[in-house]
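Good morning,

Both structures are done.
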Amino acid sequence: MAKTNEALFPSQITDFNERITYALKQIEKDHKPLSLIDRYTRGLHTAPYVPRKANPEFKELVKRSIHNLIPLLVDAPTNALSVEGYRRPDVTGNPAEWRHWQRNRMDQRQALVHRAAIETGQSYASVTPSLLDPKVPEIRAYHPMRLFAGYDDPVFDAFPMYALYIENNTYSEKEPTRARFWDDQMVYDLVLGGKEPEIVTKRAHGLGVCPVIRFTPKMDLTGRVSGMVEGIIRYQDKLNQMYLSLLIAQHYTGFAIRTATGLSPVERVDEHGMPILDEDGQPTYVPPVLDPSTMLVSPSPETQFGQLPAAPTKDFLDAIELTVRHMCAVTETPPHYLLSGKLANLSADALAAAESAFQRKIDEIRNSFGESWELVLRLCALVSGDQTGYEVEDAQVQWADKGNRSLAQAVDAGLKLTQMAVPVDIVLTKIPGFSQQDVDLVRERLGEDLLTPQGQAALAKQDLSSAEQEQPDQAKSAAPITPGAKPKGSPRPKAASGPGRGAARPKGRVRADEPAA
């Protein structure tokens, strides 16, 4: 058996305690860079350069110079990712495992998984049988700062060999922490802090694989992952330094400075009118107050007034805008997401061109995240006892359409697709605002026959024959009437009798809901 410190791959470690020790070392190794990413995401940045003898006023400007754009850059791809359905080739509509998705509130929690993966480069989700009902799957999400998954081949393996999650990165004998360990057979609830991990409970999950799935937006062939935040930390530091320079320029030189020479000083006097002297016996003077509300007046004709213009700040603003554009270019974020005032009155084609790189990035992330969510839902089927649902490999998650297409454009394209005999339920998935629940409701009300191309053709033929039958009746009703003559074929109004009879209608008129003779 290879020792932990000599193992090159997690597959070389088979002992339970050695696996936990190796996983803890990897979590500790990754804690520093992941903690830095977490701090910058939350706005806890490294402060800009401050002179050693800076006064409190300058230090306050340093605090106000932090301008955190990282959350906005992370929100752009996160808001464009939303799973709204799951399709299997052997089931019409959403299969049974989609109910487990809804039961675990994954419509809201999926954003937490996506956000953590985009920020750091990876995140995790686990699927295990519930303690209350072993046929009901339980989905949980984890941040990579507290979970390590050991893969034999991190690029091509769908499931890890084992995984360890800890609730707190700092623990000791006095303050232990809870942990959870998965392998291909068991789930262990642990307590860490002593010399060896203490097993509190263990139970078999019966899935045959380690039920932990990794989400990564970008990974190379060596298994290395990369997130969005790590690559823009230096740009964020540069941006904070530029904002500090802007605040200094605005605070000290952003206003016009008024000057005066030859002013007659005003002596300080006490309550008796006697001058107040300083330590050297010299009279003291009241310093002039210079603010925007003060008017300077001098009785001396030799006094000269002047004004120094305010320093321009355009260069600082241009430098800040250039840095923001660099951050957008590095993260493939459309610039108008952050610089809304710079791009105005753009056509739909111009906006689509500005977002082309961003949409390609979203497609790449969807391909990666989609495979991970499919594994999650397949494990849900396996936990619930559906072996077929787990073995199906051509299932696919449905992503919500978050594009900038207008509803009119989508409907027009949908009408053209229906004319090409594309089923209605497939067309509705391309309409913005239509969820999978709406599509299932349309399928239920129309019926399966009317959703097929043959059913649509039969419906169109039926509508055409009904229109042809109505044309002769419309022609008769639209025949010209000679002045003074009775309309041909018009029924005589019959006098109604009995209580509640209606009023007699004028001759020569037919109600719209009454068939023509």
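Second structure follows.
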Amino acid sequence: MIGASILVTVAVLLVLGFWSARRVRGKAGNFTLAGRTLTAPIVAILLMSQVIDSNATVGAADLSGGFGFWAGAAMPIGLALSMLLLGLFVAKKVRAMELSSLPSYFLQRFGRSGELLCSVLAIVCFGILMAGNLVALGLLMEYFAGVPYWLSVIIVAGVALVYTLVGGMFASVYTGVFLMGVMTVGFVGLSLWMFMGPGYSAPEGLGVLDFEQLTQSSAGSVINWATIFALGLGNLVAIDVFQRISSSRSPGGARAAGVLAAVGTVVLCVPLAAVAVTGADMLGDFEGPLLYGLLTGPVPQPIAITVIAALVAASLTTVSGIFLASSSIIVTNIFTGARATAMISRTGLLSASRYAMVPVAVIGIIVALRVNHTGILLTLAFDLLCASLVAPFLFSLWTRMASTRALMISTVLGLGLRMVFFVLTPTIYGVDNTLLYLPNDLIGVEWDGWSTFMAAAVSAVAYLAIGMAGHRRRPDGFPATSATSARSPEVAATPVSAPAPEPVTDPAPDPVPASVPASSSSR
């Protein structure tokens, strides 16, 4: 029954993807941004489907079972905080700018150098996030359906690629609505079963009321707060979040969608941390993903089938969103030279966007086959963004300070510091660093978590100091016709009344962005 539910879910998603193709009508604007026609509830569903995936559910359950309720709850709390900040302070301004992608924003604020830097970092970081979802789905199909892990990864990546190639953003809309319906029934049913059936229980020190998990470093408080911080701020510069906000019908609708998504994320996902703590107490020394053990053990089969279907749909929807956003960035923000533009013109923007998805899918498959871990990959992706793009994005959005030199230097310093700690710290969010650790006597496990705050602080301070010292300030608006709309004429845009920005006067030579590892480990 569980194996059949997985197959049925995949089949439904494929049908919805092909059905949504009729809404594309051959237009790139419909394919990438759904024609900017989505209402606030639909955008809220899309935002929730972006943050509620296998990384944030299966990974969070394992964290709760191993480290306590607040270790697992930190993930949905951090993601909900991000949605709340997005709705209150970011979404309305971003939607009013009529842009199509996050790198297009950096192009307007920081010039071509900023666009390239943002594009490369965003694709690398979200390649890590995509790989985490492919890993979770591969393990799920191996565990429940007996399909070999490597074959499962290829199958699920292929399914997401196929229905995204056909339906684009409208495919995400239809599959997202299906996902939220199934997920609400499954997650609420699982929580009710736990509280009304076996009842809540937790090992000593790991429960909901054991607040030392938030106050004592020995109980993991620094790592838990670092998780909330990294997800809460890093997700503000998520390429798929930016794209979904830009698909909203109006700026006000984009703001309301962020707030609704924050509430929905807390209601659906935080109780799962309590379920996981109880499950760890019930299962004892179970080996494997904790949530999978519960679903094949004490949980009633109808609830288990619904939850598994929700996990499959959630991860495929997230992977689909990353395919879509990454291909759009490749076509409109990276390959902008004369020869590339001529080739895209001959091919057509819509076709080029579809072709660009294929190498993105291949890279995700390769990473997932080499690093079969979930959970931490989600936090790591946003951790790296906190150390690089978050400060320049927020300061340039809410002030007149937009300095290319400040962007470059702050990114190199923040990301460089984070990478130094990543290589020298023996653990990553509480688990052994088996990826890039260099044994040393300088940095121990006590630095784990603190490095997240330190790298983000260095990036923010450097950006402010260099920007203020150079007095490089630009108006807070965007021109009526941007470079993005010129490259993508099929994307409908309404001119925004704003003074034309002064040219960036302090361009620095285009540096090679700091290297970012496409791998991590699970906690």
